[in-house]
Amino acid sequence: KQEVTQIPAALSVPEGENLVLNCSFTDSAIYNLQWFRQDPGKGLTSLLLIQSSQREQTSGRLNASLDKSSGRSTLYIAASQPGDSATYLCAVKNTGNQFYFGTGTSLTVIP
Amino acid sequence: EPEVTQTPSHQVTQMGQEVILRCVPISNHLYFYWYRQILGQKVEFLVSFYNNEISEKSEIFDDQFSVERPDGSNFTLKIRSTKLEDSAMYFCASEDWGPGQPQHFGDGTRLSIL
């Protein structure tokens, strides 16, 4: 069964810093990997999706990379802002239709 | 931008009662999902639905659960006889066909079993 782990569990940084969130997964036979943002009491907002054949995706200040062979993905956030404060979730889709989620990284950006 | 909508936002139910959670996926999407998130825990996959039938389900999705797309727009999750441990946030998601299509999530229904 696919296991997805995210470290760190919580991160607090001053505004303006660049930061990296990590996601690792145990089964490299994935279809895609998606990064989400979850605000308290809210649903999940899709940030980036990387297909298994891709190495990275970028959207604005966000860049996600995928190394399928080592079972790792990173989410890089440039020039962090207080509005980036949220929980960031990594989810892996295997060749079936199941998504396996990590426990998330809770990010606080201090003004 | 089109979005997935879920109702109600909060449902309080007595243990043993039936509950139906409702979702309206994005209209041209073809794949539909239910997930749950127990407080403080991971988001867990329950079931996926395509072409009017279940395509995959997890071990959580036992005989107490069922899904339906009754009218081509709504997508429902029914829990027949609720237990205390069914208390969780339930998320609906939908996805368009094709590689590279992200899943879009609703804001969830918080289910509280008393």
Structure description:
Chain A is mostly beta strands and 111 residues long. Chain A is built from no helices and 11 strands. Chain A has strands at 4-7, 10-14, 19-25, 30-38, 44-51, 56-59, 62-67, 72-77, 86-94, 99-101, 105-110. With 114 residues, chain B is mostly beta strands. Chain B is 0% helix and 50% strand. Chain B has no helices and 11 strands. In chain B, the strands form 2 sheets. In chain B, strands 2, 4, 5, 6, 9, 10 and 11 form a 7-stranded mixed beta sheet that branches. The model of chain B has no long low-confidence stretch (mean pLDDT 93). The A-B interface holds A 32, 34, 36, 42-46, 49, 51, 89, 91, 96-104 and B 4, 6, 31, 33, 35, 41-45, 48, 50, 55-56, 58, 91, 93, 99-108.
Topology readout:
The complex is a heterodimer of chains A (111) and B (114).
Chain A: E1 4-7, E2 10-14, E3 19-25, E4 30-38, E5 44-51, E6 56-59, E7 62-67, E8 72-77, E9 86-94, E10 99-101, E11 105-110
Chain B: E1 5-7, E2 10-13, E3 19-24, E4 31-37, E5 43-50, E6 53-57, E7 65-68, E8 75-79, E9 88-95, E10 104-105, E11 109-113
Parallel strand pairs in B: 2-11
Antiparallel strand pairs in B: 1-3, 3-8, 4-5, 4-9, 5-6, 7-8, 9-10, 9-11
Overview features:
heterodimer; A: 111 residues; mainly beta; six-stranded mixed β-sheet; five-stranded antiparallel β-sheet; 0% helix; globular; B: 114 residues; seven-stranded mixed β-sheet; four-stranded antiparallel β-sheet; 50% strand
**Total of helices of chain B:** 0
Mean pLDDT of chain A: 94
Q: Quick one: biggest sheet of chain B? A: 7 strands, mixed
Low-confidence spans of chain B: pLDDT under 50, at least 5 residues?
A: none
Summed up, what is this model?
The complex is a heterodimer of chains A (about 110) and B (about 110). Chain A has about 110 residues and is mainly β.
